Amino acid sequence: MNRLTRITAILIQLQSKKVVTAKEIADRFEISLRTVYRDIKTLQEAGVPIGSENGIGYFIVDGYSLPPIMITEEEANALIISEKLISNQGDASLIKDFNSILIKIKSVLRDFEKENVAKLENRIVPSYKKEIFESNWLSIIQKAITNTKILEVTYHSIYKNEQTLRDIEPLGIYYTDKAWIMVAHCRLRNEIREFRLDRILKINVASQTFDYQKDFSLSKYFSQLTDPS
Known about the structure:
Blueprint: H1 3-16, H2 22-29, H3 33-45, E1 50-53, E2 57-60, H4 73-86, H5 92-106, H6 111-121, H7 138-146, E3 149-157, E4 162-175, E5 180-186, E6 191-196, E7 200-209, H8 218-226
Antiparallel strand pairs: 1-2, 3-4, 3-7, 4-5, 5-6
Protein name: YafY family protein
Keywords: Transcription, Transcription regulation
InterPro entries: CBASS_pafABC_assoc_protein (IPR051534), DeoR_HTH (IPR001034), HTH_11 (IPR013196), WH-like_DNA-bd_sf (IPR036388), WH_DNA-bd_sf (IPR036390), WYL_dom (IPR026881)
């Protein structure tokens, strides 16, 4: 990758997050921190309003944006593969949201790239699964996590064959071989529980919010589950 291409890619990366660290940039492009600092300075001298905070990272000043970004054919192909994988994971809301953004992305492709993508769409199939537990709640839950909104959930327990109404604080989501799972703090049980999305019968987003748990992460959650101590 030549320097001009890299600097353009760094600018796009800066717009992808609120704050980007120099290490993130260095790791992505396999360059030294000194090179990162030089590239950032080049962008600043070109008039791009890049701010920085010591020990935190770089950020684009609010109000600045790039013109519509063109993507490469390779990137478009990666999206087609992602589409196939997502369509095989059972959640209708995720499929709908991804298809919507994919249509927008396809709209900026050049004609020959659109033709190539169309060819590829019929030549890729994800692994065949005989049984998928279908759901339609992923989009709502993702938004509730980012906005720290309490969810009122009607949940069907297979083991007890009963329905319960729970007020929960959604913390994370992960996918098993067949179903999407939500990790949440259940106010009814006063502990962290897992909820299979296909067993949720109804969700209502409450007006109440909960305190965002900055120290929670799924990697930490899984390690605690497997820790014998």
